[in-house]
Amino acid sequence: MHDVLVIGGGNAALCAALMAREAGARVLLLEASPREWRGGNSQHTRNLRCMHDEPQDVLVDAYPEEEFWQDLLKVTGGNTNEELARLVIRASSTCRPWMRSHGVRFQPALPGTLHLSRTNAFFMGGGKALVNAYYRSAARLGVDIRYDSPVDALELRDGRFVAAVVKGERIEAKSCVLAAGGFESNREWLREAWGRNERGEWPADNFLIRGTRFNQGVLIRHMMSQGADIIGDPTQAHCVAIDARAPLYDGGIVTRVDAVSLGIMVNREGLRFYDEGEDFWPKRYAIWGRLVALQPAQIGFCIVDRQAIGRFMPPVFPGVKAATLPELAARLELPQQAFMDTLNRYNAACRVGRFDHTVLDDCRTEGLVPPKSHWARPIATPPFYGYALRPGITFTYLGLKTDARARVHFGGEPSENLFVAGEMMAGNVLGEGYTAGVGMSIGTAFGRIAGHEAAQAATQEARHALA
């Protein structure tokens, strides 16, 4: 029998497995996917948001705890557990040497990733390289790994983990870490959560999944049925506006279109619906998926002109290009009169000062609803470009309530040997909203905590058995 069972195969699960193994535990990791798709959503990531009080290798200047906390507080609207959030923030300042010891390499922020050189450490080779480095390290240290091993249920006794069931096989361990992701790939659950809107549509039918198809939420649903304490709103998620031509699963970060703050967004009726210049893009990009989900047919259109080209990360698919705005409306199949009225009102309302996309500049609209608070310039320089965007869900926030020791709770009481990390508990920190890189910060912090705690619990279990 193994000491620690880790269920999941992404960043949080791997951090847990490595920490438990370093503590001397015999570890088995169960990954639901085949080997070639291992890593869950982590394979699509790029960076980790890091607190630091002075320049550190690939990070410039300083990003102190209080600023990180205020950024998180703003994007979540206060819907966060401050104790756990600050735990994540502090852990983000010390985790990189440990990550390097397991083969992860870092590089400076990529061109086009505005403002992140100070706040985020980028993985050399991206999330796939990080995942592969962790798997190599796990194999070298003697962690047992099984692929194609989805866990269907857990055997629990008075809040204690006893065994997991995989395709009818019962697997025992002294302790367990749950790190199997959210439920974003479960279309029926998304439909159940979002329901029908006032137009009679099922919004979830038009959602794309940016990451793995294997996050079906089986264990979350199972833990709910077992009386585990749950946290989070099932409709809240890391939800980004992505290219409508993206694949249903695993499109990853390249399907994102980062041009919204440089232009305007309209719905299929040709109308604007939110302030595109509210704040810096890394802080606000993750609100746009939900905003688009609330529009007719769950589709929006990002409109920019030649002035924007070269100022945002080039997306994988080229935009629809036109020499005139009426031609662009026709090519995007938008109502031309409403579209032109929207553009004309926006252009007339622009009060252009000194445009600078690296600061909250003084280019704004006046007398326009909704306003554009920054980076507002008339869209009048051909050629013009349009990108059709749909909601792209990265991961859902409904999950298991936990504490600073990553313990699963039942009726307010913590389990002695069952722990949780990653997307299965991210809702404790992210009640809503998102800021770039914080998902990896949460997964790394709680993966390491859960692995350490699980190893300790396994040791205690062994001592009791000998007593």
TrEMBL record:
Signal peptide residues are none
What's the protein here called? Tricarballylate dehydrogenase
Looking up SUPFAM superfamilies in the UniProt record yields: FAD/NAD(P)-binding domain (SSF51905), Succinate dehydrogenase/fumarate reductase flavoprotein, catalytic domain (SSF56425)
Q: Which cofactors is this protein said to need?
A: FAD
Q: Which segments cross the bilayer?
A: none
Keywords from the named record: FAD, Flavoprotein, Oxidoreductase
PANTHER family tied to this protein: FAD-DEPENDENT OXIDOREDUCTASE 2 FAD BINDING DOMAIN-CONTAINING PROTEIN (PTHR43400:SF7), FUMARATE REDUCTASE (PTHR43400)
Looking up Pfam families in the UniProt record yields:
FAD_binding_2
Which residue numbers delimit the FAD-dependent oxidoreductase 2 FAD-binding domain?
A: 3-429
Question: For this protein, what is any one GO molecular function term?
Answer: oxidoreductase activity
